[in-house]
Write a structure and sequence with these properties.
213 residues, Arc Repressor Mutant, subunit A, Rossmann fold, seven-stranded mixed beta sheet, three-stranded antiparallel beta sheet
């Protein structure tokens, strides 16, 4: 079944399942039940079974899922069965942390280029990646890079993404706190860390309640 026929919420959970499978594989496991996978990733077992039903029958009654086979199937569905080259735009504090983060490789993602507009950063190397002049983003078209991570200030985000799209980028992970306007063929996922953090107090006791206890 093709990607666009799978519910977005299911696609959102597949990397979570993949991470759980990789952890279990590292522990020497060959099979895993939906309940064990649920316990490790924090998703209900029935939800896991429903999500995986979109891709065929990976499980065996009484045995569970073959971890290697299921991980391979999820990677194929997410199109992670080949190394995906990505570019980072904006090498500030957040961008530098992203360059140093080893977790991308778990999903077959490799940040191979980085750009910044600050002359003081251009030419420096962070975690093996040389920072290039943002004015040269157009050169990406010749480098077979289709994914981009944008970690620039809000005011610069739209213009940077416009340049990335013109250079052939098809998918953008956006950390700038704003909505980006792109052609329909381009996929943008925005992560506003401050907005996500702002949700947490709702689930916590009020300050006055805490002071009373």
């Amino acid at each position: 079944m093709r990607y666009h026929k799978i519910p977005d919420e299911t696609v959102r959970r597949l990397p979570i399942y993949l991470r759980g499978l990789m952890v279990s594989a590292d522990q020497g496991c060959e099979h895993i039940s939906s309940q064990s996978l649920a316990d490790s990733v924090g998703v209900d077992a029935w939800q896991i079974r429903k999500d995986l039903s979109y891709f065929g029958d990976f499980g065996t009654p009484g045995v569970g899922y073959n971890i290697e086979k299921l991980a391979r199937g999820i990677k194929k569905t997410l199109r992670l069965d080949a190394i995906r080259r990505a570019v980072l735009v904006g090498v500030g504090d957040l961008g530098s942390a992203l360059l140093a983060y080893p977790g991308f490789r778990m999903y077959g993602l490799d940040i191979v280029a980085a750009f910044d507009a600050d002359p003081k950063k251009i030419g420096k190397t962070v975690n093996g990646v040389e920072i290039e002049d943002a004015a040269k983003i157009g050169t990406l078209r010749q480098r077979d890079i289709s994914l981009a991570i944008v970690a620039v200030p809000r005011a610069a985000a739209q213009s940077m993404v416009d340049e990335l799209v013109a250079a052939g980028v098809k998918g953008v992970l956006n950390f700038a706190p704003c909505k980006l306007v792109v052609p329909k063929r381009i996929k943008v996922i925005t992560l506003d860390i401050a907005m996500e953090l702002a949700r947490l107090p709702y689930y916590m006791p009020r300050v006055e309640q805490m002071s009373e206890t």
